[in-house]
């Protein structure tokens, strides 16, 4: 076993911390998309906070979906197998509605 830095010794492999995931947060026709770069191990909780701050809303007023899957705050891009470029859809939560529509006849 050689001394660290000795000629002929290769440095230990370190995890690639430079890898970033490029997310595009898509709002549909209402607003412009947001581009976000995060580490594969970053929890989506941070993405929710960043989108909320950018939009001036609470983080509980919208949801993020990727490929039909609702992104939960404790999940990470790594845990879901994200590629380096991904598009995430943002949907505003709606409360209420109904009551008085064509399907509800009043008596």
TrEMBL record:
Pfam family, one: Rad60-SLD
Superkingdom of origin: Eukaryota
Residue intervals of the Ubiquitin-like domain: 21-97
InterPro entries linked: Rad60/SUMO-like_dom, Ubiquitin-like_dom, Ubiquitin-like_domsf
Name of the protein in question: Ubiquitin-like domain-containing protein
Organism: Rhodotorula diobovata
